[in-house]
Structures are given as C-alpha cells and as structure tokens.
Amino acid sequence: MNINGKKKIWSEYQKEIPEDHYFYVRSCIRQNFFPASEKLFLEIVRERLSLDFFETEHHTTCGGIAYHSDTIPQETVMTIVARQFALMTEAGYKNYVASCITSFGLYTEILDTWHHFPELESKIRDYLWKTTKREFQKPEYLAHASDVVYKLRNKIASQAKYKLVNKDTGEPLKVVEHIGCHYSKMFPSKGVGGAEYPYVLTGMIEAWGGEIVDYPERRHCCGFGFRQYLVQANRGYSISNTHKKFESMAPFKPDMIITNCPGCPYFLDRWQYVIKEMEGKTYGENGEGIPVFTYEEVAGLVLGYDPWYLGMQMHQTAVEPLLDKIGIKYNKEEKYLL
Amino acid sequence: MKEFGYSLSPSSRVDLDKVDKSKQNRLFALEPGFKKCMSCGSCSATCSAGNYTDVSLRRAISYIQNGQDQLAVNMLRNCMLCGKCLIICPRGINTRNLIRNILNVYGEKQI
Fold first, then answer.
1. What domains can you pick out in chain A, each with its CATH number?
2. Which residues of chain A does B7 touch, with a Cβ-Cβ cutoff of 8 Å?
C-alpha cells in the first residue's frame, strides 16, 4: 500500500474548523456506554484550553437513533432538530458541535435537505412555532466534537503527560482508527479527509505519538447498523461485520483501537467478548482483547487523567495491558470505587 | 459455547494476495479473450441454460477474477456449450472456448 499517496490525498480533503464559541449537544447513548467521554471533552476544552463551549440541560436526543431505526418519520426528526437549533439561537451561538456521529450526519442531512427543499424548511419552522412557540437560525458552522479535538490536537499534545509509545521499546503504538459511518460517508465534503481517507482520528494519533495501522477492512462498518443490532434475530449480521474487521486487522497486531462514534467503540469492545465465547478467539496479545477507546478517552490518557476517572472500568475489554505498555500509573484497587 | 440467539455468518471476504494466480495465467494463455470481458452480461442474458439453471458466464468470470474458482466450475457444469453467448458477445470473446478451458483448468475432468 502506498502510504505517501494516501497522505497526499488526505491533505486535499481538509476543512476549516473554528476553534472557539460552540453550542455543544450530547449524545443520548454515549452517556450510557462511555459515561466520562462527554464530561471529559468539556473539561478539556473549558478548563485545560480555556475555550467557550456552552451546553444546556434543555436539549434532547436529536431523534437520529429512532430515524435510522425506521420508527419516526423525517419531518418529526426535523422538528426535533429545529428545536435544538432554536436553543442554540436563544443562547446566542452560531457554531454547533455534536458529540454523536449520527447526530452530526443527521444535522448535515437535514441542512442539505432544507437547502434543496426550502418549502420543507418553512413547513418545519411552522411546526416548531405551533408546538413550542420557538424560532431558530441555522448554524453558521456545524462540527463534530472529534473535528474540534482534531483542531486542538497539537495544543493537547503540548500539555501531554504521556505519549502513545511503548515505554519499553520506545516504538510508537500501533493504533487502529475507526470512523463512524455517518461522519463522512454520506457527505464526504463535511468530514476531515472525505469518505475514503478520513484524517480526523489519524491526525490525533500522529500528534500524540502513535502510528496508524492501514488494514484492508479499515473503512468497513463496525457492525452496529441500527436495525442489524436492534432486532435480536439480525444480530448475526452485526457481529459478522465486527468479526470481519477483527480478522482483517489481526495480522497487523494493533495495540489499541480509537473511534469517534457512539456505537463503534461499544460494538468493537463488547463483540470481542461474544466472539471469544462463540469461537474461543481473541485478537490482542497474550490471549487478551484489543482495548477500544473513544478519542476523548485517549486525549484524557495522554493528558494524564486517572483511567478510572475516564470510566475505563466500564469497558468490556480490559485496558490494563495497554496502560502498562504506555507506563500510565493507576491503582488496581480503585478500579470499581468511583 | 454460550447460546446468544444469533451466530456468525461465514465471511465473504476474498484476500487476493492469497489467490493462486498460476491457473489464472494458464487460462489467459489458453483463451486471451478472458481479459477482454467488460461484464456487460449479454452472455448471461442470452443463455438458454441460464433460463432454467444457475448459469451465468458473467458471474463465473467474476468468480475466477476473485479467486473463487470452484463456484465458477460448479456453475459452468450446467452449460450446454450451445454457443449463443459467442454470437452475442460485443467484445468478440470466444466464450465457448473460454468455458471449456475454465472447466479444463479448474475442473477435475477434462472436456
């Protein structure tokens, strides 16, 4: 594989990302799966980097999970999103940042739909007014939270306590990056690096000392796929997707996986246990699994946060072997005390 | 093994690095027209056997290119060698010769 060629193409798919003054919206499922990630994101941007990120307790789910599960119509989900935009307008912000990849994809899809069908936008404005007496401005800039961390990656690196390096050998850790499908597969121009060569997580890993693994099924779905998982009879499709990815990445012996989507870290993490039960197979070193992280968790690790404060006790696949490899200090006794 | 109520499906992934190219090269030498196929599907559309059985030369060529040669052989066993595909092929490939040679190179029996 020609890595230099890929790097050249990546550099052609960059997008401008504002650094400051954002209206932040959380994900409905990330807080259950990886509870510390969103808190940590706000802590890093507000306290470590002194930036203005506003969030309100009045925002709701974007409706994306129901929309992609075929349970609510598009006009309903558009009205929910219009209400979120109204909250942003009322708070006086113009940059909108979503924690969830599916939310980001949904907002992008809705803004694009309104651009092509302005009469639909008027209809939704009417629905919103009738139901909530609110009005809204569309965001001037829409970002995913990983775009912001990508933009700030060098500032984070300058405050880093650890690097993604094997402390014994001095070699960079081999990292698999997995981008959520709704980040740039639907609207390639909206993601850093487009659909084929997303650079958003690669940029973070390179800035923090790691080395990216390029493997054949790198752009394959993690397997969540909404209906594939939500209907139990379909879960074979979900786990088969994940299995295909692990079989493809295994020969490259990755040390860890980093993701930027709510579903991907969950399924890449949890399905490793199920594959072990079904096939007796594990993909990490010494019969262990490959630990899976959100990008906020990796940022937290390099900044020197306590792993248990980052919620790593919630992972199915144990993270301790990787922490030892990097040389991150932690107290085993405190794992489940927080 | 725990019962989860669902199971893994066999992967359809093909690792082309692991495909043995020697038989493919023999086939190219015996019927160079193989490389001219543009997968238009005219052969499959006109195939008499294909109306009643699972025969598609377009699919068989694709299987060979992907290293799934046994799927191609099993499919082409139903071919009657009538040659209608030879008449219709816009690239002028000697499809009957191609089918014979696929079966000869990849099959167990010579025809």
1. 22-145 (1.20.1050.140), 149-328 (3.40.50.11810)
2. 236, 278
